[in-house]
Amino acid sequence: MSAENLREALVEEIRDLYNAEKQLMKALPKMAKGATNDQLRDAFESHLDETEGHVTRLERVFELLEEKPRGKHCAGIAGIIEEGSDVLQEDMESSVLDACLIASGQRAEHYEMAAYGTAVAWSEALELGDVAQLLRETLEEEKAADKKLSALAESGINEAATAGESEEEMDEQKTTRRSASSPEQPSATARSARQRGGRR
Ligand SMILES: [Fe+2]
Predict the structure, then answer these.
(1) Residues 6+ apart with CB under 8 A from 13
(2) What is the DSSP string of 72-125?
(3) How far is the CA of 21 from the centre of ligand 1 (A)?
(4) pLDDT of 71-93, one tens digit each?
């Protein structure tokens, strides 16, 4: 970063974010396509729509700062995306894949939250109220997207991944358990207790 003052540093940070958002616009459709859980796919797709809005807001920020809308390669987000795409190339059980996609999505969100948080604080310090407000709106959407991913992980994806089962397998087993009431059929509770025991 070659900035002589905080305003220049802010412009550099905005350029970094502008490029990061554009990289995410290419990555999010791939993550959505890779997701096997419907709600996770929807979450990536709706964050893609929000990301388009983030790009537009950053263009407005460039305008307010009287700078050309120009990005600068963001190596940080590129690394996070690269790790995420490795996950998509691996042959893994679908619920584990979903859990890993959430992990890489949250890494991206946290990177953006840190960068937008800094940019908001710097614009406030520079008394650039309109710029700070635009950046704060995006920061709030990044935080909400992060929370949504946590909620999805905790609402069953992590549990399914723990058991090494896909959603369909879990559904199939529920059906099998209902139709076959053989005494040898282990109960869900006994089975998950054994799995918990096995991991310790
Ligand atoms: Fe964003």
Answers:
(1) 115, 118, 119, 122
(2) ---HHHHHHHHHHHHHHHS---HHHHHHHHHHHHHHHHHHHHHHHHHHHHHHHH
(3) 5
(4) 999 999 999 999 988 888 888 89
Residue type, 83: E
What separation in Å is there between the alpha carbon of 19 and the centre of ligand 1?
A: 10
Average pLDDT value for residue range 6-21: 98
- When the candidates are 1.20.1260.10, 2.60.20.10, 3.40.50.2300, 3.40.50.10400, the CATH number that belongs to 6-165 is 1.20.1260.10
The alpha carbon of 138 and the centre of ligand 1 are apart by a number of angstroms equal to: 7
Q: State in Å: Cα 92 to ligand 1 middle.
A: 28
